[in-house]
Amino acid sequence: MTDSNPETKREIKTTDLAEQPTAVLRETVPMNALREFFDRAYKSVMTAVEQQNVQLAGPPFAMYRGMPTDVVDVEAGFPLAAAYPGGDAPGVRAGVLPAGRALEAMHVGPYDTLPETYGAVMAKMQAEGLTPGEAMWEYYLSDPAKEPDPAVWKTLVVWPVS
Question: With CB atoms 3.0 to 4.6 Å apart as the test, which of 21, 101, 121, 125 could cross-link to 130 if both were Cys?
Fold first, then answer.
């Protein structure tokens, strides 16, 4: 018998986040065009931070503002060791991952099953009487170019709460 309760398949923990400077590309993108956007965003941001000699401080991420629907307000980029000073890269700008209390869940599997993890995080919020923040983000800990099996991809879901 398989347990279909997603909350039992992943640990969801409460954490206190420190503010994290980032460099990002932000656009409003149809869900079916996210892959192309991410490819373009990560290449643009990586080139820009290398030109500015700014050190990366973590894996690539994507921050979603509001609950994703058919079209999402998304910014994609990298956390940095210091604030991004700006430069000539079109659309690349300084950003920040905000400080505060959040729920974190490690998602293991293909990206198209991420809604299950978000559902488990939302269930924990409701059970604990927490209010979800306006934005949530995902750190992509696996590189699909190096790990072709989506069943083992790891994505850290971070959702601020109050």
Answer: 125
* pLDDT number for residue 144: 86
| Per-domain residue ranges of the chain | 7-160
**Better-scored residue on pLDDT, 16 or 1:** 16
Q: Which residues pair with 16 in a beta bridge?
A: 101
3-state SS of the chain is CCCCCHHHCCCEEEEEECCEEEEEEEEEEEHHHHHHHHHHHHHHHHHHHHHCCCCECCCCEEEEECCCCCEEEEEEEEEECCCCCCCCCCCEEEEEECCEEEEEEEEECCHHHHHHHHHHHHHHHHHHCCCECCEEEEEECCCCCCCCCHHHCEEEEEEEEC
Separation between Cα atoms, residue 63 and residue 96, nearest integer Å: 10
Q: Residue 95 is encoded by which pair of tokens? A: 């950003």
Tell me the fold of 7-160: Multidrug-efflux Transporter 1 Regulator Bmrr; Chain A (3.20.80)
Residue type, 55: Q
Q: For 32, left (φ over 0), alpha (ψ -120 to 50), or beta?
A: alpha
Question: How far is Cα 136 from Cα 53, in angstroms, rounded to an integer?
Answer: 28
Whole-model pTM: value is: 0.89
